[in-house]
Amino acid sequence: MFGLDFVKKAQELQANLAKAKEEISLLTVTGESGAGQVRATMNGRFELLSLSVDPALLASDPGKVSDLVVTAVNDAGQKVRTEATRIMGDATGMGPGNPLSAMGLPGF
Where does 25-92 sit in CATH, by number? Predict the structure, then answer.
């Protein structure tokens, strides 16, 4: 029913996906807001690793801090999603260079 080539491609895809998941888990990205006054660092598992707020911001406009923190954390999360999508696309052959990716079809 399925040829040896199909099985080989499936095994290759499985190995690529495992490697991609590992690569994603090792990601570290930093999101920013307020022209860099607030920075949020997040890993590929969407865990917040660090958060820094410029002390000058705290002194000058403490009410603005919570909005900037939310924006920086959301920015970091979006960067994780973007990078994870790219990595998984590369692993599956569904990246932007694959003409079949626009149709949702794998490139093998």
Answer: 3.30.1310.10
